[in-house]
Write a structure and sequence with these properties.
This protein is of the alpha/beta class. It is built from eleven helices and six strands. It has helices at residues 2-9, 19-51, 54-80, 95-123, 132-159, 162-190, 196-223, 229-240, 275-293, 309-325, 359-373, and strands spanning 247-255, 261-270, 296-304, 330-338, 343-351, 377-385. The strands form two sheets. A three-stranded mixed beta sheet has the order 1-2-3, covered by helices on one side. It has a three-stranded mixed beta sheet with strand order 4-5-6, with helices on one face. Helix 2 packs antiparallel against helix 5, helix 3 (54-80) packs parallel to helix 7 (196-223) and helix 4 (95-123) runs antiparallel to helix 7. The longest helix is centred in the first third of the chain and has 33 residues, at 19-51.
């Protein structure tokens, strides 16, 4: 059914890479979510009020919050699709993150309101009806949410949307909460145990917790979280696949919204090669990233001496030694300046963000390792911060 709906209502469904395609898929998923959640809210709300069940009403309000989330997500996809302008040269993709933050705040507010309502029901219990209508509405809700989970997961993975994949997880959670409400209604009816207020309280806590978690998840990309390790590996491996490339480092990825990522890196190439050819190769790599991945990559050319065996041996030895301090560390841009009494050894050392050593402690330790092997060496070390989750 999901594929049929996509083929019928999404224009050019096989085009999933462009910003326009993301917008079409996102808006369609939002409309489907709004319709389904509003119908579930109306059905559960009516049954919950007639049955006098605060837990069913709480579950209905949860569906209303989901519909509100879908509306905000729909708006977020629409605003995020706006093209770049002079005031926003990187586009408006972060509107999608802002929409997610607004949804999260709304969920927290609704969760708090449900906690208060449920607590009042615990303090002032009342009779709860259990009949075929209650069972049918809640069972139907579970089936609809199971389908919505599969639908959002399929669309989310197709366009690489963490927002829609999170919506799929939310639908799965709704299945669990509705099943608990159904079990509570049955227990209250058959066993004479009044659990309605307590289950409503549990649903409220669940909604509140989900909202707080969602706030954390939506704030992270706005603050600038570490890039996806798979993307880091893809960029590194792609650059290294070109003939003549000796290494790459100083990779940075800037996230301006889903599908709007920019990257920069340094590329090491033999200094002995024709600089015009090296420059041409770098241009080709940048263009290939743009055409194949839709990723804007800016590369910096680092010339490396490759015809001096002693410098090569020193570079490889120091790189191996810094890995004994931390396996994620590496060095780059090593060069030597010989003198009559000593040799200046200049290089950059990449330091993981969570390394327990200060910059000075790190340079002192690395310098001690180098001078133990090369007594005439005087190290001039620049500490680089690693801006990716793992260092290749």
């Amino acid at each position: 059914m999901t594929e049929w709906l996509i083929r019928r209502f999404v224009k050019d469904p096989d085009d999933t890479a462009s910003v326009a395609a993301r917008t079409r898929y996102g808006q369609f998923a939002g409309i489907v979510g709004i319709v389904c959640n509003l119908l579930l809210c109306l059905g559960k709300g009516a049954i919950g009020i007639l049955a006098g069940s605060v837990s069913i009403v709480a579950d209905a309000v949860n569906n209303l919050s989901d519909a509100s989330s879908n509306i905000i997500s729909l708006l977020g996809f629409k605003l995020a699709s706006k093209p770049a302008d002079p005031e926003h040269p990187y586009g408006h993709g972060r509107y999608e993150y802002l929409a997610g933050l607004a949804v999260a705040i709304l969920i927290v507010f609704i969760g708090w309101e449900l906690l208060q309502t449920s607590f009042d029901k615990i303090m002032n219990p009342g009779p709860t009806e259990f009949n075929a209508a209650v069972v049918c509405v809640l069972a139907l809700s579970i089936l609809v949410k199971l389908w919505m989970m599969a639908f959002n997961r399929t669309v989310g993975r197709r366009i690489g949307s963490t927002t829609l994949e999170a919506t799929a997880v939310d639908s799965r959670n709704d299945v669990v909460s509705t099943a608990v409400v159904l079990a509570c209604a049955a227990a209250s009816h058959f066993a004479g145990i009044d659990l309605d207020g307590w289950v409503g309280l549990a649903v409220g806590v669940f909604i509140l917790y989900s909202g707080v978690q969602l706030i954390r998840e939506t704030i992270d990309p706005l603050l600038g979280r570490v890039p996806d390790p798979e993307l880091v590996s893809h960029i590194h491996d792609t650059i290294m696949s070109y003939p003549g490339v000796l290494g790459t480092h100083d990779l940075m990825v800037h996230d301006y919204g889903p599908g709007r990522q920019f990257a920069s890196a340094h590329v090491e190439m033999p200094v002995e090669a024709d600089p015009m050819e090296s420059h041409d190769l770098i241009d080709n790599i940048e263009q290939d990233f743009k055409e194949r991945d839709g990723l804007i990559v800016t590369l910096h050319y680092d010339p490396i001496v490759t015809d001096d065996p002693e410098v090569n041996d020193m570079r490889n030895w120091i790189d191996a030694q810094v890995k004994t301090i931390d396996g994620r560390m590496s060095i780059h841009d090593l060069r030597t300046v010989p003198g009559p009494t000593h040799v200046n050894v200049l290089f950059d050392c990449v330091k993981p963000a969570d390394l327990a050593l200060s910059d000075k402690e790190l340079t002192d330790r690395v310098s001690a390792l180098v001078t133990a092997r090369y007594p005439k060496a005087i190290c001039k070390i620049t500490v680089d911060q690693s801006y990716v989750s793992s260092q290749q």
